[in-house]
Specification:
The protein is an alpha/beta fold and about 400 residues long. It is built from 14 helices and twelve strands. Helix 2 packs across helix 9 and helix 10 packs parallel to helix 14. The chain binds pyridoxal-5'-phosphate.
């Protein structure tokens, strides 16, 4: 039975010829898998063990930490390994707000008895947005959700107007996973701290890692940033939190001293080695791999879409991340487009992967002012190594044929 499943899965993987869903996950390349397997045969101990196998694993753990730190541009000790960006976001948000739930002295000094106030952008990933909504419903925080403009860029003035003496945390993502919109994080963190220096500033930078230069991040006033291994072609289930030296967050898990007690629990050595190796590969290759290759693919695809009538692009791809295009085609269901792309061996996505399948309109597009129908029927193409400029015409051809079939069923 297991063999049958494996056989079927293998065929499914091979039948996808063009992969343009890199914002959802970056497929692992065979060379990378081989490199991780080779490393694991040497470094598979428990890094907390005192014997030589444990010490070797500890060396591998710290080497991976340096590799990830180099890609972020921060110091090695500022990287905390987690199970992914969802956990990194949770660790910061619950860890910062949590200090005010437990420590009454800090509560009265900082917020004069009020609930800790948290401000987030309206287009945050569910690992931020749904979390703060639940915390607010449970009476743990006071929540403000800041609006974005029609391109999905957060309105900085609105955020600043929300900051008060009781504000403890602002979380605004760097690159939106659905539209690729880029937020003015450096200026925003400066302005927020100028208004209230006690506010902690967090950014979800998952979609920026390996795709754009972010070495400015640790030099900015941003206190922490969330990252995910599988978005850069590493194993799933591993991530990192950049935590600026001196930033203090409460751990979510207790019971061990790993990750300097910020994330106790035996480290995911296979995932961490994988993350480190991909970070090492990309650190030396940023400009060539992403900026030079994906921007032309994005431009070529935008040009191809102009030939399909009824197509509307969401946001401003030119000022967003180089690999993403989000659009809808009037009167054509997003599911029809995605199904036909899939049948043609092209993997693309609707909305964010975490909410796709649930059939909810995208909260990102809704926040940008689009209707429920558009927010339910958008398509996201995100280019990467297995789907670039060379594949654009084929993708456009499948879209065009689908549109013809849906809008003029009797023809052809
Ligand atoms: C912007 C953003 N934040 C957070 C996450 C969650 O990352 P992970 O899958 O590592 O938990 C994702 C993944 O879709 C994402 O795109």
């Amino acid at each position: 039975m297991i063999c049958e499943i494996r056989y079927e899965m293998k065929n499914t993987r091979n039948s996808t010829k063009i992969y343009v869903d890199y914002n959802s996950t970056a497929p692992m390349e065979d060379d990378h898998l081989k490199a991780v397997m080779a490393a694991l045969s040497e470094f598979d101990g428990n890094p907390s063990s005192q014997h030589s196998s444990g010490r070797r694993a500890k060396v591998a753990l710290e080497e991976a930490r340096t590799q990830v730190a180099n890609l972020i541009g921060c110091r090695t000790q500022e990287v905390v390994f987690t199970s992914g960006a969802t956990e990194s976001n949770n660790l910061v948000i619950q860890g910062v707000a949590g200090k005010f739930w437990d420590n009454l002295e800090a509560v009265s000094a900082h917020r004069g008895g009020a609930l800790p106030h948290v401000v987030v952008g309206a287009t945050e990933h569910p690992s931020v947005l749904e979390l703060v909504q639940v915390l607010a419903e449970r009476g743990r925080i006071r929540l403000s959700i800041a609006p974005v403009d029609q391109n999905g860029v957060v309105l900085s003035d609105e955020i600043l107007a929300l900051i008060g003496p009781d504000t403890v945390l602002v979380a605004v993502m760097l690159i939106n996973n659905e539209t690729g919109a880029q937020q003015p994080i450096v200026a925003l963190a400066d302005a927020v701290k100028a208004k209230n220096p006690l506010v902690y500033f967090h950014t979800d930078a998952v979609q920026a890692l390996g795709k754009m230069e972010i070495s400015w991040l640790p030099k900015s006033k941003v206190d922490s940033a969330a990252f995910s291994g599988h978005k850069i072609g590493a194993f799933k289930g591993v991530g990192a939190l950049y935590l600026k030296a001196g930033s203090k967050v409460q751990a979510l898990t207790l019971g061990g001293g790993q990750e300097r007690a910020r994330r106790p629990g035996t480290e995911n050595i296979p995932g961490i080695i994988s993350f480190g190796l991909r970070a090492r590969d990309l650190a030396g290759d940023l400009a060539r791999v992403w900026v030079e290759r994906e921007r032309p693919a994005q431009k070529a695809f935008l040009a191809a879409l102009t030939r399909i009538s009824g197509t509307k692009i969401h946001g401003d791809p030119a000022t967003g991340i180089a690999n993403t295009v989000n659009f809808h085609i009037e009167s054509v269901a997003g599911d029809d487009l995605l199904l036909n792309l899939d049948l043609a061996g092209i993997a693309a996505s609707s909305g964010s992967a975490c909410s796709s399948g649930v059939g909810r309109p995208s909260h990102v597009l809704k926040a940008m002012g689009y209707s429920d129908w558009i927010a339910l029927n958008s398509v996201r193409i995100s280019f990467g190594a297995r789907g670039g400029a060379g594949e654009v015409d084929r993708i456009a051809e499948v879209l065009e044929k689908t549109v013809k079939r849906v809008l003029s069923p009797g023809v052809g």
